[in-house]
Amino acid sequence: MQQVHIGLGSNLGDSRQQLEQALQAIGRLPQTRLLKTSSLYSSAPLGPADQPRYTNAVALLETGLDPLQLLDHLQAIEQEQGRERKGERWGPRTLDLDILLIGQQSISNTRLQVPHYHMHQRPFVLYPLAEVSCADLQLPDGRLLVDLLLQCPQDSSLHRLAP
Protein backbone atom coordinates (compact mmCIF):
# COMPACT_ATOMS: atom_id res chain seq x y z
CA MET A 1 0.00 0.00 0.00
CA GLN A 2 1.25 3.46 -0.81
CA GLN A 3 -0.01 6.94 -0.07
CA VAL A 4 -1.16 8.98 -3.04
CA HIS A 5 -2.24 12.62 -3.30
CA ILE A 6 -4.91 13.34 -5.93
CA GLY A 7 -5.78 16.82 -7.18
CA LEU A 8 -9.44 17.38 -8.03
CA GLY A 9 -10.86 20.21 -10.11
CA SER A 10 -14.09 21.14 -11.86
CA ASN A 11 -15.54 24.23 -13.51
CA LEU A 12 -18.55 22.93 -15.45
CA GLY A 13 -21.92 21.99 -14.02
CA ASP A 14 -22.30 21.78 -10.26
CA SER A 15 -18.60 21.70 -9.38
CA ARG A 16 -19.09 20.89 -5.70
CA GLN A 17 -21.30 17.95 -6.59
CA GLN A 18 -18.82 16.80 -9.24
CA LEU A 19 -16.03 16.72 -6.65
CA GLU A 20 -18.21 15.00 -4.03
CA GLN A 21 -19.20 12.30 -6.53
CA ALA A 22 -15.57 11.85 -7.58
CA LEU A 23 -14.47 11.43 -3.95
CA GLN A 24 -17.17 8.80 -3.41
CA ALA A 25 -16.03 6.96 -6.54
CA ILE A 26 -12.37 7.13 -5.46
CA GLY A 27 -13.37 5.68 -2.09
CA ARG A 28 -14.91 2.70 -3.91
CA LEU A 29 -11.81 1.86 -5.97
CA PRO A 30 -10.37 -1.62 -5.37
CA GLN A 31 -7.48 -1.88 -2.90
CA THR A 32 -7.98 1.81 -2.07
CA ARG A 33 -8.95 3.74 1.04
CA LEU A 34 -9.68 7.47 1.13
CA LEU A 35 -7.81 8.90 4.14
CA LYS A 36 -8.35 12.69 4.05
CA THR A 37 -9.90 15.38 1.91
CA SER A 38 -8.98 19.06 1.93
CA SER A 39 -11.34 21.99 2.02
CA LEU A 40 -12.74 23.15 -1.30
CA TYR A 41 -11.09 26.14 -2.95
CA SER A 42 -12.25 28.44 -5.71
CA SER A 43 -9.63 29.59 -8.21
CA ALA A 44 -9.39 31.52 -11.45
CA PRO A 45 -8.91 29.30 -14.51
CA LEU A 46 -5.51 28.76 -16.08
CA GLY A 47 -5.42 29.33 -19.82
CA PRO A 48 -8.48 30.79 -21.53
CA ALA A 49 -10.04 33.41 -19.24
CA ASP A 50 -13.52 33.10 -20.75
CA GLN A 51 -14.48 30.10 -18.63
CA PRO A 52 -15.97 29.67 -15.15
CA ARG A 53 -13.89 29.60 -11.97
CA TYR A 54 -12.62 26.24 -10.78
CA THR A 55 -13.47 24.41 -7.59
CA ASN A 56 -10.39 22.50 -6.38
CA ALA A 57 -9.44 20.08 -3.62
CA VAL A 58 -6.81 17.46 -2.78
CA ALA A 59 -7.46 13.96 -1.49
CA LEU A 60 -5.02 11.68 0.31
CA LEU A 61 -5.56 7.99 -0.24
CA GLU A 62 -3.84 4.70 0.35
CA THR A 63 -3.84 2.20 -2.50
CA GLY A 64 -2.43 -1.11 -3.59
CA LEU A 65 -3.05 -0.25 -7.25
CA ASP A 66 0.00 0.39 -9.38
CA PRO A 67 0.28 3.95 -10.78
CA LEU A 68 -1.07 3.20 -14.26
CA GLN A 69 -3.96 1.13 -12.88
CA LEU A 70 -4.84 4.07 -10.63
CA LEU A 71 -4.59 6.47 -13.56
CA ASP A 72 -6.93 4.25 -15.60
CA HIS A 73 -9.48 4.21 -12.76
CA LEU A 74 -9.28 8.00 -12.32
CA GLN A 75 -9.76 8.60 -16.05
CA ALA A 76 -12.77 6.26 -16.00
CA ILE A 77 -14.27 8.33 -13.15
CA GLU A 78 -13.67 11.52 -15.18
CA GLN A 79 -15.39 9.97 -18.19
CA GLU A 80 -18.34 8.70 -16.12
CA GLN A 81 -18.86 12.27 -14.93
CA GLY A 82 -18.95 13.72 -18.44
CA ARG A 83 -15.31 14.65 -19.02
CA GLU A 84 -14.60 15.08 -22.71
CA ARG A 85 -10.95 15.15 -23.77
CA LYS A 86 -10.98 17.54 -26.70
CA GLY A 87 -7.29 18.32 -26.66
CA GLU A 88 -7.80 21.89 -25.44
CA ARG A 89 -5.14 22.50 -22.81
CA TRP A 90 -6.51 24.10 -19.65
CA GLY A 91 -10.00 24.29 -21.09
CA PRO A 92 -13.23 23.94 -19.09
CA ARG A 93 -14.07 20.49 -17.73
CA THR A 94 -16.64 18.72 -15.61
CA LEU A 95 -13.90 16.90 -13.71
CA ASP A 96 -10.12 16.77 -13.63
CA LEU A 97 -8.37 14.17 -11.46
CA ASP A 98 -4.58 14.43 -11.32
CA ILE A 99 -2.13 12.18 -9.52
CA LEU A 100 0.07 14.70 -7.72
CA LEU A 101 2.32 12.48 -5.62
CA ILE A 102 2.80 8.75 -5.08
CA GLY A 103 4.88 8.45 -1.93
CA GLN A 104 8.46 9.24 -2.90
CA GLN A 105 8.16 7.89 -6.45
CA SER A 106 9.22 9.81 -9.53
CA ILE A 107 7.51 8.68 -12.72
CA SER A 108 7.94 10.11 -16.19
CA ASN A 109 6.39 8.39 -19.18
CA THR A 110 3.98 9.25 -21.97
CA ARG A 111 0.93 8.71 -19.74
CA LEU A 112 1.98 9.89 -16.31
CA GLN A 113 4.28 12.47 -14.72
CA VAL A 114 4.75 12.25 -10.93
CA PRO A 115 5.21 14.55 -9.14
CA HIS A 116 2.64 16.36 -11.25
CA TYR A 117 4.34 18.95 -13.43
CA HIS A 118 3.93 22.59 -12.36
CA MET A 119 2.22 21.63 -9.08
CA HIS A 120 4.90 23.61 -7.25
CA GLN A 121 3.66 26.80 -8.99
CA ARG A 122 -0.05 26.33 -8.37
CA PRO A 123 -1.57 27.73 -5.19
CA PHE A 124 -4.82 25.83 -5.90
CA VAL A 125 -2.78 22.62 -5.53
CA LEU A 126 -0.32 23.55 -2.77
CA TYR A 127 -2.75 25.00 -0.22
CA PRO A 128 -5.17 22.05 -0.24
CA LEU A 129 -2.18 19.67 -0.38
CA ALA A 130 -0.88 21.22 2.84
CA GLU A 131 -4.24 20.55 4.54
CA VAL A 132 -4.03 16.78 4.00
CA SER A 133 -0.27 16.34 4.44
CA CYS A 134 2.16 16.32 7.31
CA ALA A 135 3.93 19.63 7.88
CA ASP A 136 7.28 18.25 6.75
CA LEU A 137 6.08 16.60 3.52
CA GLN A 138 9.07 16.13 1.25
CA LEU A 139 8.76 15.70 -2.50
CA PRO A 140 10.87 13.07 -4.28
CA ASP A 141 13.34 15.76 -5.38
CA GLY A 142 13.97 16.75 -1.75
CA ARG A 143 11.95 19.97 -1.73
CA LEU A 144 9.69 20.54 1.27
CA LEU A 145 6.04 21.49 0.88
CA VAL A 146 6.45 24.31 3.39
CA ASP A 147 9.21 25.84 1.22
CA LEU A 148 7.08 25.52 -1.92
CA LEU A 149 4.26 27.35 -0.15
CA LEU A 150 6.63 30.17 0.79
CA GLN A 151 7.87 30.43 -2.81
CA CYS A 152 4.44 30.02 -4.37
CA PRO A 153 3.20 33.01 -6.36
CA GLN A 154 0.58 35.03 -4.49
CA ASP A 155 -2.88 34.40 -5.92
CA SER A 156 -5.53 36.80 -4.69
CA SER A 157 -8.13 34.88 -6.72
CA LEU A 158 -7.75 31.73 -4.57
CA HIS A 159 -10.48 31.45 -1.93
CA ARG A 160 -11.25 28.68 0.53
CA LEU A 161 -14.96 27.85 0.29
CA ALA A 162 -17.26 27.41 3.25
CA PRO A 163 -18.23 23.78 3.90
Automatic annotation (TrEMBL):
<dbReference type="GO" id="GO:0003848">
    <property type="term" value="F:2-amino-4-hydroxy-6-hydroxymethyldihydropteridine diphosphokinase activity"/>
</dbReference>
<comment type="function">
    <text>Catalyzes the transfer of pyrophosphate from adenosine triphosphate (ATP) to 6-hydroxymethyl-7,8-dihydropterin, an enzymatic step in folate biosynthesis pathway.</text>
</comment>
<dbReference type="GO" id="GO:0005524">
    <property type="term" value="F:ATP binding"/>
</dbReference>
<protein>
    <recommendedName>
        <fullName>2-amino-4-hydroxy-6-hydroxymethyldihydropteridine pyrophosphokinase</fullName>
        <ecNumber>2.7.6.3</ecNumber>
    </recommendedName>
</protein>
<dbReference type="InterPro" id="IPR035907">
    <property type="entry name" value="Hppk_sf"/>
</dbReference>
<keyword id="KW-0418">Kinase</keyword>
<keyword id="KW-0808">Transferase</keyword>
<comment type="pathway">
    <text>Cofactor biosynthesis; tetrahydrofolate biosynthesis; 2-amino-4-hydroxy-6-hydroxymethyl-7,8-dihydropteridine diphosphate from 7,8-dihydroneopterin triphosphate: step 4/4.</text>
</comment>
<dbReference type="GO" id="GO:0016301">
    <property type="term" value="F:kinase activity"/>
</dbReference>
<keyword id="KW-0547">Nucleotide-binding</keyword>
<keyword id="KW-0289">Folate biosynthesis</keyword>
<keyword id="KW-0067">ATP-binding</keyword>
<dbReference type="Pfam" id="PF01288">
    <property type="entry name" value="HPPK"/>
</dbReference>
<dbReference type="GO" id="GO:0046654">
    <property type="term" value="P:tetrahydrofolate biosynthetic process"/>
</dbReference>
<dbReference type="GO" id="GO:0046656">
    <property type="term" value="P:folic acid biosynthetic process"/>
</dbReference>
<feature type="domain" description="7,8-dihydro-6-hydroxymethylpterin-pyrophosphokinase">
    <location>
        <begin position="89"/>
        <end position="100"/>
    </location>
</feature>
<dbReference type="InterPro" id="IPR000550">
    <property type="entry name" value="Hppk"/>
</dbReference>
<comment type="similarity">
    <text>Belongs to the HPPK family.</text>
</comment>
